Amino acid sequence: MLRFPMSKANNKTIQTGQSVADFLASIEHPVRRADGLALLELFDKTTGLPAKMWGSSIIGYGRYHYKYDSGREGEHLMTGFSPRKASLSIYIMPGYRDLSQMLDRLGKHKTGKSCLYINKLADVDLPVLEEIIFNGLAYMRKNYETWDE
Predict the structure, then answer these.
(1) What is the domain count for the chain?
(2) Is 14 domain-assigned?
(3) Tell me, what DSSP letter sits at residue 108?
(4) CA–CA distance, 146 with 66 (Å, rounded to integer)
């Protein structure tokens, strides 16, 4: 029986040329839009990197290269956020390793593998969120091949 190598799946979330400002202006819910603008300011200040759209709804900062044991590899944002309808999603790559002390001080939130979910920014301590973002970015720069663009 002949075997052919499996094709590598393309990443669904890639950097686009979409305008960050236009995306945020298009958010209908006024609190979610205001929180998105506040997160943009916080991430801009914390990362010192330019905001770029990734996919249709993620605002990302920097890029990193990953390679899995399976051979799949690609690039993804180092950190970022998305003001989704259900909640604000904060992306800390590659996840919330040993951040329990910071998360305990953050306020009302939920976590996924690499996502922090917040209903609204008023529910959390913004200086603690800034610490978490900075910590995640430092981890990425130390452990992965990264680009600040």
Answers:
(1) 1
(2) no
(3) S
(4) 10
| pLDDT tens across the length of the chain (149 residues) | 333 333 345 677 899 999 999 999 999 999 999 999 999 999 999 999 999 999 999 999 999 988 888 888 888 899 999 999 999 999 987 666 788 899 999 999 999 888 999 999 999 999 999 999 999 999 999 988 888 87
- Does residue 64 lie within any of the structural domains? yes
CATH of the domain at 98: 3.90.1150.200
Residue 148: which residues within 8 A CB-CB, separation 6 or more?
Answer: 48, 49, 62
Residue among 144, 83, 147, 148 nearest 117 (CA): 83
Question: 15 pairs with which residues across the strands?
Answer: 54
Q: Give the range of the structural domain holding residue 79, as residue numbers without chain letter.
A: 20-143
Q: Is residue 10, in this structure, part of any structural domain at all?
A: no
Q: How far is CA 27 from the centre of its chain?
A: 18
Q: Compute CA distances 113 → 91, 93, 100, 104, whole Å.
A: 9, 9, 14, 17
pTM of the model: 0.88
Pair of tokens at residue 146: 């990264």
Tell me the three state secondary structure of residue 11: coil
